[in-house]
Every structure is written in structure tokens, then in C-alpha cells.
Specification:
Mean pLDDT: 88
Helix content: 55-70%
Radius of gyration: 15 Å
Oligomer: single chain
Strand order of the largest sheet: 3-2-1-4
Number of helices: 6
Distance between the termini: 38 Å
Order of helices and strands: HHHHEEEHEH
Strand content: 5-15%
Shape: globular
């Protein structure tokens, strides 16, 4: 039953995000997510036991699998932008991990990509997969520079 709720929540969240993205554009959605997610209180991992950290890791794994599965069956193409925004919000809100949402472009051949980082480490991808992209937006830098209202 829990998986079913996760699937429905994820499908609804990503579908609403897709509609808002089409209506408002990437910059607006980036600012909106950063405004709500970057200001959240983040836990201090030094106070958590290994068991607690394993539970957090398990929760992230579940959400990641659910997100990937839902995106395969949505009636629109839900790629890295949809998945990264959704998982950024979930990981920060549910798990209190200070991940960053990153958007980059590769000039030749032109392509764009969104991914999540924890510090300077890619959260779900290998470094070689994102190293060809020039970072345009990174959530904590954007927030710290005052580009969004605190």
C-alpha cells in the first residue's frame, strides 16, 4: 500500500511540475523550488547513528526507484529536469539532506542536463557523466547570492 501511495504522489507531483514548467518556464520553477527548499533546516549527521543513516539511505533509494518507474509511464517525456527537481524536493524535505539542484549546458554538441549534488559530489551520477556540462544554475549558490527571497 505504501508503494502505491508513493507512486500516485510522484505521478501527480511530476505531472503538476510539468504543467507549471510549460506555463512559467525553467527559471521561474528553479526560483520557486529554491525558495522553498534551500531555507529548510538540515540535520547534523554527526548526531545520527549508523542505523538512522541507513534508514535515510533506504528512504532515498525508495523514492529514487519510484521516481524512475513513474517517469517511464507518464504520458509526456519526463527526463532529468523532472526527476532532479522532484528528488531535490523530496530529499531536502523528507530526508533533510543538503543536496543541491544543478543545471548545466554543453555547448557542442548542444545539450542541457539537470542533476543533484551533495557538496562537490554527484548524488546519483558519476562525475564523468556531468563533467562535460558547464554549470549555469546551482541552488545553494543562487540562494546565497540573494537571487531569491529568503
Amino acid at each position: 500500500m505504501k508503494w502505491f501511495i508513493y507512486l500516485i504522489y510522484t505521478a501527480c507531483s511530476i505531472s503538476v511540475f510539468n504543467l507549471q514548467l510549460k506555463k512559467s518556464g525553467l527559471t521561474h520553477m528553479f526560483k520557486r523550488y529554491i525558495t522553498t527548499c534551500e531555507a529548510m533546516a538540515i540535520i547534523d549527521y554527526n548526531t545520527y547513528s549508523e542505523r538512522d543513516l541507513l534508514e535515510i539511505n533506504k528512504k532515498i533509494g525508495i523514492w529514487t526507484v519510484v521516481c524512475e518507474q513513474v517517469c517511464r509511464f507518464l504520458p509526456f517525456e519526463a527526463k532529468c529536469v523532472h526527476q532532479s527537481f522532484f528528488l531535490y524536493k523530496i530529499i531536502r524535505k523528507q530526508c533533510k539532506i543538503p543536496v543541491s539542484l544543478v543545471i548545466g549546458v554543453c555547448p557542442y554538441p548542444f545539450s542541457a542536463h539537470a542533476w543533484i549534488m551533495l557538496g562537490n559530489i554527484n548524488f546519483f551520477e558519476e562525475e564523468y557523466e556531468t563533467s562535460r556540462y558547464n554549470v549555469l544554475l546551482r541552488s545553494e549558490s543562487y540562494y546565497e547570492m540573494g537571487q531569491v527571497e529568503h
